[in-house]
Amino acid sequence: MAKNKTTASARHILVATESECQTLKNRIVAGEKFEDLARTYSLCPSKTQGGALGTFSPGMMVKEFDDVVFGEDVGIVHGPVKTDFGYHLVEITDRSF
């Protein structure tokens, strides 16, 4: 039986409130850079890398995060996504099966 080789790379911005998350999403849609907003506003240590989380497999992140990263379109900013950590904007930068 073959092992699941699905992996993805993503970046995110973690904030405390849904309204702040939506405001940041609107700013990205208006043309601001995801990485710059992550460095300024994200509560996650990944902010020093512009929100980049590296490459990971299903089950390595919380379910709500996995559902987006492994089920939604690559290259689009998704969210707000609520987890126990707060509210995330998630951009899937790569995914392979």
At a glance:
This protein is of the alpha+beta class. The chain has helices at residues 18-29, 34-41, 63-69, and strands spanning 7-15, 52-56, 77-83, 86-96.
Structural summary, described in words:
The structure is a single chain. This protein has 97 residues and is of the alpha+beta class. The chain has a single domain, classed as Roll (Chitinase A, domain 3). 28% of the residues lie in helices and 33% in strands. The protein has three helices and four strands. It has a four-stranded antiparallel β-sheet. Strand 3 and strand 4 form a beta hairpin.
Low-confidence stretches: none
Strand arrangement, major sheet: 2-1-4-3
CATH architecture descriptor name? Roll
Q: How many distinct domains?
A: 1
The pLDDT mean sits at 95
In CATH's first tier, which class applies? Alpha Beta
Distance between the termini: 15 Å
Strand content: 25-35%
What's the number of extended β-strand segments?
A: 4
From the 3D structure, determine the CATH topology.
Answer: Chitinase A, domain 3
So what's the overall shape?
globular
Radius of gyration: 13 Å
Largest sheet: 4 strands, antiparallel
Number of helices: 3
Which percent bin holds the helix content?
25-40%
Helices and strands, in order, run as: EHHEHEE
List the topology elements:
Elements: E1 7-15, H1 18-29, H2 34-41, E2 52-56, H3 63-69, E3 77-83, E4 86-96
